[in-house]
Structures are given as structure tokens and as C-alpha cells.
Hints:
mainly alpha; three-stranded antiparallel sheet; extended
Amino acid sequence: MGQETSEKIARLEREIEELEKENERLRRLLEEALRSAKRQAAPFSRRGPKAHPQKPGRKAGSQYGRRCRRPIPRSVDEVIDVPLPGQCPYCGGGVQEEEIVSQYQTEIPEPRVERIEFRIPVGCCRHCHRRVQGRPPRQTSDAIGSAASQLGPRAVALATQLNKGLGLPYGKTAAVLEEAFGLRVSRGGLCQAMARVAHKAEPTYEVLVVWWMWAFSTSQVTVYSILPGRGFEPAAVVLGADFAGFLVRDGWSVYRQFCRASTKPAWPICYDAAGR
């Protein structure tokens, strides 16, 4: 074995040793970071206290932070005159009035269930002899007979918001309606009511799905545009067909039609509504 080969082997052994030390150091740092993430907050933290900890609570002066308070209502629905106590609650002495101050309280009115009876006239067409019945705008269903008891539009709207908007299951939605308003409704009743809501909203949904929301983002601004379709023409409405900047994209073929654009990972970032 020549001297040059021996020196090369020795150099590689030193590099291996250094890499093993670095690997061990990084392994210890990783384990420490994982342990720190699982530790509880003080006083159970194992980390040492800071040398110069800041005082807890709000800071005085310019470091106090943003000051917020509940705004005074623009309108008042009820004014309550509060009587002054007849005697001092501390010593029992007489009390003399000096001024009147105001406090404002924003409250939810006492909920109640409104029960409405619709007296519906039923008739027969003189021409086709089909059955005809009246229906005012406040009715949510034409059902009568065994299904004559229905939920009103405001109750259905609230239930829909709780279930679809806030993600509450049918059982918890029914619990909120009963506990807050005394309105008892079954899970099946809610499901049927929301099916009717979906049926009424279907024409609007069919119109909305014709359009496509594009999002064009840079490090400083994001532009949203609702356009008919997801082809090259809608994208070029915002970027321009001759866009020559950096375009971050996936394999969607439309983006390849920006022939002058560079595909390096820089701005602007171009996505469609599906995240493409």
C-alpha cells in the first residue's frame, strides 16, 4: 500500500470520526427539543430560570400594549333608574346623593318559542279539477295532516348554521335549540328540514359552480378573482398572456401556456381554488 493511499485512508477515517461526532451532537439536540415540546409549563419545567426575567402583567407607559374596552352602545332599549341605598352598607349612616353615573349592559333578550297556526284554505280548480291550497311566505312546508307541525324559517336557519356552519352534529344542534329556546326537535326532523333547505338552495348552487375562484399570491399581496372556468383565458385575465415573471405551479397544463414565464420557486405564486 502506497503512502498516498495510506494518507487518503487516514483522512477519510478522520472525516468519518468528525461526522459521527456531529451526528451525535445533532441527535442530542433533537432529543432535547422533543423533550422540551412535551414538558409542562412552569413550575414543572426543567429548564433553568432566566437570568433577568421580565415582570409579569401589563407594562407601564408605551409598552402597555393595545388598550381595548367594550364600546358604549349607540342606542339604548331600556333605561333603569337604580335607587340609592337608604343607609351606608359599611357604617349604617345616612346617604346623600351627589351625582348620577351610567353603566351599560348588552344582554340577549329572553328567548321564547313563537307558535303560529296557519289556517289554510283548500280549493279545487274549476278547469283541471286539481287540489289547490294557499301558502303565505312565512310557511316552510306545504305539509298538512300528520306532518302539519313544522319548524319556522328562523329556527331552520339557526339549526342550519349550527350544523353546517359551526359543525355541530344533529344531536347537539337539537340540544342547543331545546336548552336555549325550549324548542324540542328530533335529529330526524332536523335532517329533513336541512334537506328542504338544500333543495331550495340547489338552483343557486348550480349557478355558483359554473364559476371558479383563482388566487394569485406574492410575498406582499394576494389577488382573488372569480371567473367562468379554469382555463388559460381566465388565468391570463389577471396575469396577462405574456406574463414573464416567476410562476410557481404544479402540473396543471394551463400554466404551461405561459410560455414566457419562469417556473422557478419565486413569486407570484399562482393557485386555483383546488390549490393547484
